[in-house]
Amino acid sequence: MGERTSMNIIKHIKVENIKGKDLLKINFDNLTANQPNIIVAPNGYGKSTIAAAFKASTHGKIKLDPKDTYQQNPANHPKLEIEFKGEFSGIFTATDESNDISRQVLIDVIDSPLYAKSTTRRFGPGTTSSADLRIEDIIVCSKVPNRYSLEYSYRRIKQSFGNKGKLFLNISEMLDDYDNIVSIFGIKDTINKCISLVAPQRMMNRFLDDCQINGTALNSKNLIPIAKVNELRNNEHLKILLDCVQGMKCKPVEWQEIDVVFTAIQLCKIISNHYENGNRDIINKIYQFHQYKKLRTTIDNRLDNFNTTGRTIRSVEKNGKLMVTFDRADSLSNGERDVLSFVVNITKFEHSFSKPIGILIIDEVFDYLDGSNMLAVQYYMNNLICNCKSSGKTLFPIILTHLDPESFSNYYFKKKKVHYISAHGQIDLNSNIVKMLRLREETTLTAAQKEEIEKYYIHYIDESHTLSQELSDQIAVGFSDSNETFREKLYDEIKNKYLEEQTYNPIMVIAGLRIKIEEKVYNMLPPDCKVNFISEHKVINKLKYAIDKGADVPELLFLLQPLYNDGLHLGGNDDSVRNKIKSAYLKTDNLHIRRMIGMIFS
Q1: Which of 92, 107, 408, 500 is deepest in the core (most CB within 10 A)?
Q2: Mean pLDDT of 2-13
Q3: How far is CA 45 from CA 24, 26, 478, in A?
Q4: Rounded CA gap, 596 and 590, in Å?
Q5: Distance between CA atoms of 538 and 541, rounded to whole angstroms?
Q6: Comparing 402 with 598, which gets the higher pLDDT?
Q7: Is residue 346 packed enough to be buried (19+ CB in 10 Å), middle (13-18) or exposed (0-12)?
Q8: Is 68's pLDDT higher than 50?
Q9: What does the alpha-carbon distance between residue 422 and residue 336 come to, in Å, rounded to a whole number?
Q10: Confidence band (pLDDT; 50, 70, 90) for 410?
């Protein structure tokens, strides 16, 4: 690994010979750990290729379905490559021969659980084949652990300590609590030393020997000087054990501070009995079983919270595995299916995240959830991220989507990174149109200055105007385009670059589109309506005004609103503006959108 830095990022992901791509490489500036990363790309770009590559690389060498190999040719060997920067630096690869990614990184992919099941039915002398949509079973645990617990008998414990037995409390509830088991597992090496080393054993025996039985257990405990407890804490192993017991839950109602010592002694005695019976890994076994119980309870509770199907959907043990099975696909709505599958899979991921770094790919699952479920799954995802941060783990949550967050406003995370990977053109922050639109958002401008930019350069008007020197100097040195000249440059960008499929500036395209739409409608109106048309604010109000005055405004001009409304407000820092430009590319770099704009300019 390279030198340690304050931020972990992924610099690039490269996929070779998977699905329809022989090579797909995506470079990132800020794909940052421990916050949602939303990768936006149109259908057909390669999102499913990325998901398939990660899914095939979760364990060991890449295991790819033959149909997912590029051109279905076995000679095309698949490969996934990831470059990390930060605390985990380096380039890691997975191929069909080796995998140094999964040794370092936990990978999981959450995608649609649908698959087609071929069925054959016999009708009379013949047969007919069809494919039913099914929902994949989710295997939560590939092996259900055996049930283990600390064998505890309060009666026998008391008997084993003779007349001192009355000083011990019944801790059966403490030994069955999940958090307590996790705490015990966390200091298992310390417990082993407290049992096996002479010094801590001698100190615990001396403590018991010095305890005087005088009347009730409570009275006898009150006679024990606090200095005796402090003596035990002078041993580093006993101190860790006592601190652990002090923090445990489900303590008996009679609990006093001195009972920390008697419970620690009990704990060592109980575990020592298991060791003597040859079960030296009892703590591991109990921890694994309690982890399993916790996982199953969490999954069932979350299924109950999200299940609106009217059917019972819970985890089941089957063939030695814990799994969640669903009904036939046609018995659940798309939203019900996807949200139930998601909550099971994210809970499974959280439970299995034992490596220091993880990558969680969510492939278009969020695209089909309704508003309420969308909020709920983001809540669980945010909890996962927060838990990773607090435990010092590095998680890269990556959401693959074709829905642009700039348009749909469907992600509500406080911090998120949006990555557009379909932008093939230039991201030019210094183009005159970008600088003009950013200037329009400046709070230092007067209302009159903002109106001058909007009225003459961002909307259509049949007057010639040149910007004031004060404004033109803020756009570019020597900028002197009249609004008519500027408008023709926008139109030229569309006709001679965009529609000819050359490299183009998307902000010039959508600005030119908006002005052209207004110009076309303006020319539909009688002279006495044109002044009022110009004075209307917002394109939609202008179109509605024209319709009210009898103009036959084509539906196409309304349908293109997401293009010319969303992309022309370029407030914010450079990163925010870059994302808005990329968002504009996502819309304009589409064959159907190109044809629709071509119709406007034909």
Answers
A1: 107
A2: 71
A3: 9, 11, 41
A4: 10
A5: 6
A6: 598
A7: buried
A8: yes
A9: 31
A10: confident
How far is residue 458's CA from residue 587's CA, in Å, rounded to a whole number? 19
| Cα separation, 10 vs 60, whole angstroms | 21
Q: How far apart are CA 288 and CA 293, in angstroms?
A: 9
Q: How far is CA 117 from the centre of its chain?
A: 30
Provide the pLDDT for residue 131.
53
Q: Is 80 helix (H, G, I), strand (E, B) or coil?
A: strand
Name, in order, each residue with C-beta under 8 angstroms of 376's C-beta and a sequence gap of 6 or more. Answer: 306, 339
DSSP 69: B
**Sign of torsion over alpha carbons 555, 558, 559, 560:** positive
Give the number of other CB atoms < 10 A from CB of residue 588. 23
Q: What's the distance, CA 155 to chain centroid?
A: 51
C-alpha span between 367 and 410 (Å, rounded): 9
Query: Residue 305: phi, psi to the nearest 5?
Result: -70, -35
| Spatial separation of the C-alpha atoms in residues 188 and 280, rounded to whole Å | 11
Nearest to 546 by CA among 560, 562, 526, 561: 526
- CA 245, 251, 256, 258 dihedral sign is negative
- 198 pLDDT higher than 70: yes
Specify the amino acid at residue 192.
N
Quick one: which H or E segment has residue 358? strand 357-363
The rounded distance, in Å, linking the Cα atoms of 238 and 165 is 21
Angstrom distance (rounded) from CA 400 to CA 112 = 12
